[in-house]
Records
---
Amino acid sequence: MTNRRDFFKTTSLVVAGSMVGANLVSAAIPAGKKKKKVGLQLYSLRDDMTKDAVGTLKKAAAMGYYSLETASYDNGKIYGMLPDEFTKQVHGLGMKLSSCHLGGPNYTKGTHAACMEWWKTAIADHAKTGMKFMIKPGMKWPETLDDLKLQMDYFNAIGELTAASGMQFGWHNHNHEFTKIGDEVIYDFMLKNTNPKNVIFEMDVYWVMKGGCSPIEYMKKYPDRIKLLHIKDEKEIGESGLLDFKAIFEQGYAIGIKDYFVEVERYNFEPLVSVQKSYDYLAAASYVK
Ligand code: MG
């Protein structure tokens, strides 16, 4: 399975001021383009972000993206920048910082204290950015329901800590959550064993579909728990025809989702082109606000 469980590795970002500027497109919203609140998971532009974070942010803003979810936090830095500096760059381009993906250390009973310390620091760093959500997209994969319950207790503890800083902690799924341990579907078990006050769910609609389930049915079943969506397709949004994005957006708005993020992980084009095409697809869709 291709996913992001290992993308939190250190990236060495060289953001040289002199490299930024000359050959970049303007950060202004193109004339005639209606500004919709389309979010972008920056993992979609991971290689470009590694090469030139500021230049790539400018390009994302110029495409029309409104809000961002980050996917690079290491040693107190976000894409190689201190939280304040990163926030200034994003705000300066007229975009909003909404959410982040964070891995954290592998959790076992023995590492509880160290893990909670890691989250304390991560929460403090991200509180400086004004983000509202801190999302975990991977965990030590459980073999038994006891293993899974241990991880959910950990999620509840992180959730409580995150809520105390005015943000919300949540889980991002892949397809594996729609398999069972015993009689329990992992995703449902996770929903039932986390505190609704402190743990939200960012539902990746593509991975729900790959898990053999319906993102729409899940939103209907847990309308108060699913607060964010990953709008993802095989490659560019809308290209496969496998997902009914109209029905997904309508159901998402019906349950009051707080934000959604385009995610492109595989590409028919250069990533910047695929990410632009994905924005254009949603910008042209009458059902997207
Ligand atoms: Mg995703």
---
Amino acid sequence: MDNAGNQRWIRVVTNALLILASVYLISTIFPSAERNEIAYSEFLTDVRADRFQQVEITDRELVGVLKENKATPGKAVRPSVVKAARLPGMDEANLLKELEAHGVAFSGKPSSSLGWLSFLALWVLPFVVLAVMFRLTGRRIGRGALTFGRSRAKIYDQSTKTNVTFADVAGVDEAKAELVEVVDFLKHPRKYQALGGRIPKGVLLVGPPGSGKTLLARAVAGEAGVSFFSISGSEFVEMFVGVGAARVRDLFEQAKSKAPCIIFIDELDAIGKVRSAQGVQMSNDEREQTLNQLLVEMDGFDTSQGVIMISATNTPEVLDPALLRGGRFDRQVILDRPDVEGRLAILEVHAKKIKIGRGADLRAIATRTPGMVGSDLATIMNEAALLAARHGKDEVGMPDFDEAIDRVMLGMEKKKQVMSSEEKKRVAYHESGHTLVALSVEHADPVQRVSIIPRTIGAVGYTLQLPLHDRYLMTQPELEDQIAVMLGGRAAEELIYEGVISSGAANDLERASELVRRIVTRFGMSRELGPLTWGEPVPSRFLRTPFEAEQRNYSEHTAWLIDEEERRIVGEIYARVKAILTRKRDQLQKVAAELVLKETLSREELNRLLAQEPAGLTPSSAMPLRGEPS
Ligand code: ADP
Ligand code: ZN
């Protein structure tokens, strides 16, 4: 019998036994109330009233045979035999005296054959039933209990290994490039061991849902030809206490025995959220235990065992910093929302699976789908194929794609993930503002990339600056230039849209406010307040920034001064930023127009663009604004 059949059989038997047992138990606990059953007190009354001819005392009850049964008018006829339960602790000595006194013949029947049968039924049978139940269900429960702990990581070992390769993952070239080394290590672990090279134990993939994190992790396993264990963080923490930690332990055990392999943990944030912050006892012991176990396991193996962990999250900011420390998930790989070229590449991957008509233009689809991630694009291709089939066509044409795009867009609009072209333009100006300020001020880090494709839902574009070297100290001018870059987006909007600003700068302003607060209250850089610190940061083990909580230890007057100083400093910087952008308005137009077109500009593209003669900039090449004829 196969395993499933076996289990079904066991379940049937168990259920039948359970029903039998409950019937038995109910019938012993609540014996069917026989009509001749009376209370002991009533029995005694009958004895005293001389109603009995004879009484028999068995080990469970008193059976009284009534004298002749006269019908009393108005009363029900009594049965000729009545019984009362013989309860432990009842005053039987007294009963016997009463029986003697009233001349009732009585006899005991301590060990009738029925007696020992009922003894069997009462005391032995339940245990037998229970024992049988345990043998059957117990085995099932036992196995269940084991599998609770046993991680449900789906194993794809070499025989059934994932055949996903890097070719299946498109539009995330940088992420792929970062993982090539991991693949090489898994293929030739000896080479690395001999060289003593340090390979990351853990790689954290960061990106919005559907950007291909799981796909990429699979591709790494596929490229290296190693086993792939995958489990989701939320699966770790479900169910009973202690199980999460047991699962982690078991997962690592299994993985080590199958090395070389990859352990993939999706939704790492489900286990890896920052552990309890100050004061707030948001005690989620189960999750913390699981997290601690994960940390212990990660520290307890080294990559020479050929196990590499890859995890994924779309909210890296909530992760416990302990997870990101050296020797853990110390390599972070970002999967951004793809730009036009990336989207085209993804569409091409998925186009291989369907028959596309000659009129269909993948690039046009890519252009129409800013903000979409790989899974959205895969859905479009799939939907379009289904639509074509429904319309009885033998290839997928542009109308099918158009309809599919509309459908996917509709879903995204509900989730507020789609930008209108007007918004796109505004974001382009905003990001160009950051970029130009960064290129203009003396102390800003070089701009690596600027994009109007949001990195996370709810955010607008981004301007990526990479520091040239690690910094241990920041001078006041450097800090102020940082704030200047943060304010560049808002200033550009104000300039271009003639004072009509948007909510898009909220995050920039938040960061600027936080930084200026530190300048004033931590770094003692304000002329008015002098070289003192103000407010005590509330200490906490796991706080991510020192400013999450602050205890005020200064007067109302100082509070007012701090506010004033912050406002003055930011005000001065903002004026400077606006002056820069006013002076470079042409360049601002140019970068923004290019951004609308290409969505993402690399450092080289920016340099090329800005090196061009501004003579080429005619009013027509500047972007039209809302209301202006285009
Ligand atoms: P995530 O793990 O980031 O949420 P997945 O890897 O589960 O996303 O992606 C879901 C599906 O979307 C994939 O199976 C694939 O079909 C498609 N997809 C996502 N990203 C890409 C990509 N970069 N290239 C090709 N297909 C992709
Ligand atoms: Zn901004």
